[in-house]
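A quick aside before the break. I want you to see a complete sequence-to-structure record at least once, exactly as it would be stored in a machine-readable document. Don't worry about memorizing anything.
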Amino acid sequence: MSKISARSPEIRDSLVRKVNDKDEDWVVREQAWHALGQHDLDDISHEVYAEFKSERDARGESGQ
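That is the input. The structure line, written in tokens, reads:
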């Protein structure tokens, strides 16, 4: 990992997978979502980011 930039497409794609993993703990998914927001988003990652934001808003966690 030390050879991969923290904002690389590989890291972004890993975060997308983590955010999408419905079997993962909510807090882990949310932390991955926050980290994903620091990346340049392509179409797929932007869609995942927006979907999780909607899910988060529905849970009433948008202000945190």
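Two observations worth writing down. The mean pLDDT is 88. The two ends are 30 Å apart (CA to CA). We'll return to this after the break.
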